[in-house]
Design brief:
With about 725 residues, the protein is mainly β. Among the domains are: about 1-190, 6 Propeller (Neuraminidase); about 220-255, Laminin (Ribbon); about 610-715, 6 Propeller (Neuraminidase), CATH 2.120.10.30. Helices cover about 0% and strands about 45% of the residues. The protein contains no helices and 63 strands. The strands form 19 sheets. It has a four-stranded antiparallel β-sheet, with no helix packed on it. A four-stranded antiparallel β-sheet has the order 7-8-9-10, with no helix packed on it. Strands 11-12-13-14 form a four-stranded antiparallel β-sheet, with no helix packed on it. Strand 62 and strand 63 (about 710-715) form a beta hairpin. The radius of gyration is 31 Å and the shape is flat.
């Protein structure tokens, strides 16, 4: 929490802000009555009114890494901040977050706090790594060293009149010196433990200091935030990313209004929000403060909890978070190659996706559990995907030699070709009000770029809507209008969904938008039996041909009650460097001992965490635990550790839950060099060969911990490597 009591012009202001992680720098615009702060936990710079209202993220991403101190020049409309990240730097931007630029990037270590001298238009800072205090002109030129001696660890820093003031962590002192020369250095107070920040303020601020937000008592005419810039003031709105209402700036440029809906988009390493209204401008747009995005592709949302979901083709993950960036997590992080398309079944709480690299279509619960491969045979480069929960059908585009749009029931059965007269299609979007499906076409030679077809088999003739779009890619719709991202124009465009008339640019200068969708609750309508109690299913509930159908994770099978899932009884485990996979045969044994042909995908990567360099595998069938020898543990990355410190024996359930490190090497355990292992599930023993001792070790298995060593077989003169165990004979 950020708490503040501040006296400004004889008025006591209080500010209490929650949902902050690690606030390092705070600055007050006393003219506009706003507070700015840096948060190294979220790597953002934010602003709000002094009472904590109208909160907005100003700077996020773009190399912002550990922002530290922050200072303002409200009369000129600039803010400055230091960054402690991998590439230490000092940056500045207009006080609305725009026109960001690096002013100092060389010769920095740990730039702590800084100060701005409005009279001379210079910026000052202290560096606790270089043990120096420096200054430069506001644009970074004319850099000067003021103090570089007897400066162990400067931290807090401020400026008033002709002097700079700073605290020193190591010397426990408060000192000052002249701002122009660094001379006349004086210790003002000593023996002050736990020194942190320092701030100097005049008792009577200069009456001629003002900006466009401070004139009169009208907040610059803005309904919410008035932010100073070098070109005057700018009205802007709270971004709604902290549990508040989502606003956008009205056409008058001053009033914040609540939109009926808004656009979300993915673009490179960012997920953003923009207004549906043409000409709304930057004030009605924001990059969502979601961390860890590397190359976002497909995007969808679930109105039940307000979360957004996206695929990342560089990180090879599928993730989710709230709009405010909280709760961000990768729900699918294993066994992905090129996750391209993504769609949420909001009734059943399931997540569907295509993998263009593995040529598969899969489904799981929205938390990533109960993962199942639906389509994998005769599938070439599946791309975009759209789900129709009400009818129990999903559609996808294939980018093979013969491009197609196909459809199947939500369990992958009843597969058939929907359209074969298309090129490589993308942006599949269902209009539930008219029972149409729209798409963009990247290959049509007749100029048709956006088309639709009715979902009913008797009305499936394709109709062209847009013929003039140079390179449409992502596509969505809202009420009677289509919205699409055009790569060649670098813009988001809108037109009538029936005729294509009224084409207008909604937002320019947004290149390489991968996906786009309208965020509106009323778009996700309807319900079915899967929506209530998951249809009584233990894992997946799939609405197929008018009824709820239970399904299991791949390789699992339904019990006789048709509700619960049972684990596979016969399979093979194998490892590939940092992956553990499972293979089943074409014939499976049912619960009653009967045999039947499997309709399952034969192999899949298990979601086992903590695998780095798997050398050997074994399995405890009683507890469904996988044991493995790993020669690439995290310890081994420390240069001072020996090779043995990299070795470990780990275990995890086959659903991916890591149960904890079984046995671990270390600096004092150079003898620990496991090569192979075997589990005795009947007698609850673990056998493993050890190249470091030339012996076979025997360890007792317990349900919670595996600690007790029973003994060893062999010694230094032996060199056991591989193991095989017949545990029915002792």
């Amino acid at each position: 929490m950020l708490s503040m009591l501040q006296i400004i012009d004889s008025t006591l202001f209080s500010c209490f802000l929650s949902k902050v992680e690690h606030v390092d720098g705070v600055a007050i615009d006393r003219l506009a009555r706003n507070i700015y702060w840096t948060d190294t936990g979220t790597n953002r710079i934010e602003v709000s009114r002094l009472d904590g209202s109208a909160r907005r993220v100003l700077v996020s991403g773009g190399g912002l890494d550990q922002p530290r101190g922050i200072e303002l020049d409200p009369t000129r409309g600039w803010m400055y901040w230091s960054d402690w990240g991998k590439a230490a730097k000092i940056e500045r931007a207009w006080m609305d977050g725009s026109h960001r630029e690096i002013i100092v990037s060389e010769g920095l270590g740990w730039p702590n706090n800084l100060a701005v001298d409005a009279e001379t238009n210079r910026v000052y800072w202290c560096d606790a790594n270089k043990d120096v205090i420096e200054s430069a002109a506001a644009d970074g030129s004319d850099r000067r060293v003021l103090i570089d001696a007897v400066l162990p660890h400067p931290f807090g820093f401020t400026l008033l009149g002709d002097y700079i003031y700073w605290t020193d962590w190591q010397e426990n002192t408060l000192q000052r010196a002249r701002k122009d020369t660094g001379e006349d250095r004086t210790i003002l107070a000593a023996h002050l433990e736990n020194l942190m920040g320092v701030f100097a303020s005049p008792t009577s601020p200069r009456p001629d200091w003002e900006n466009a937000c401070s004139r009169g008592d009208l907040n610059g005419g803005c309904s919410h935030l008035c932010l100073a810039t070098p070109e005057g003031h700018r009205c802007t709105c709270p971004d709604g990313l902290h549990g508040g209402q989502v606003y956008e700036l009205d056409a008058d440029g001053e009033t914040c209004v609540v939109p009926d809906a808004f656009l979300l988009y993915t673009r490179e390493d960012a997920i953003g929000r923009m207004s549906l209204r043409p000409g709304a401008g930057e004030d009605s747009s924001a990059v969502l403060p979601v961390l860890g995005v590397r190359e976002a592709s497909a995007l969808d949302f679930d109105r039940s909890d307000g979360r957004i979901y996206w695929s990342d083709i560089d990180a090879k993950t599928i993730s989710r978070s709230h709009l405010n960036g909280t709760g961000a997590e990768a729900v699918v992080r294993h066994g992905l190659d090129f996750p391209d398309g993504l769609a949420v079944d909001w009734n059943a709480g399931n997540l569907y996706w295509t993998d263009m690299g593995l040529d598969r279509i899969e489904v799981c619960r929205t938390d990533g559990s109960s993962r199942r491969v639906l389509v994998w045979e005769d599938l070439v480069k599946p791309s975009s995907i759209a789900v129709n929960p009400a009818d129990g059908v999903f559609y996808w585009s294939s980018w093979g030699e013969k491009p197609l749009i196909e459809q199947a029931a939500l369990d992958g059965t009843h597969r058939k070709v929907f359209r074969d007269d298309v090129g490589r299609t993308n942006g599949l979007t269902i209009d539930f009000r008219t029972s149409r499906i729209y798409w963009t076409d990247l290959d049509r030679t007749d100029g048709v770029s956006i088309s639709y077809s009715y979902l009913q088999p008797s009305l499936q003739a394709t109709k062209a809507v847009i013929r003039s779009a140079p390179h449409p890619y992502g596509l969505t719709l809202f009420r009677n209008e289509l919205y699409w991202a055009d790569w060649k124009l670098g813009a988001v465009v809108r037109a009538d969904k029936d005729t294509g008339a009224g084409e207008v640019v909604v937002r320019a200068n947004v290149s390489r938008v991968m996906d786009i969708l309208v965020y509106e609750d009323s778009l996700q309508i309807g319900s079915n039996d899967c929506k209530f109690g998951n249809g009584g299913c233990s894992d997946l509930c799939l609405f197929v041909r008018g009824e709820a159908k239970c399904a299991c994770p791949s390789h699992f099978r339904l019990s006789e009650d048709g509700k619960r899932c049972l684990p596979p009884s016969d399979f093979v485990l194998f490892s590939q460097k940092n992956k553990i996979s499972r293979v089943i045969g074409k014939v499976i044994v049912k619960e009653g001992g009967e045999h039947e042909e499997s309709d399952e995908v034969p192999d899949l990567i298990l979601p086992v965490q903590g695998t780095r360099d798997v050398q050997a595998l074994s399995y405890d069938a009683r507890r469904r635990l996988i044991y493995w020898v790993d020669q690439g543990s995290h310890w081994g990355r420390r240069s001072e550790e020996t090779a043995a410190a990299r070795f470990s024996i780990k275990r995890a359930f086959d659903n991916g839950t890591l149960l904890g490190r079984r046995l671990q090497g270390g600096p004092e355990r150079e003898w620990f060099q496991p090569e192979d292992l075997e589990v005795d599930p009947v007698n609850r023993l673990l056998f493993w060969t050890n190249a470091g001792t030339g012996s076979i070790h025997i360890t007792r298995l317990f349900d919670d911990e595996d600690k007790d060593s029973i003994g060893t077989i062999g010694g230094k003169s032996d060199k056991p490597e591989k193991l095989a165990l017949h545990y029915h004979k002792r």
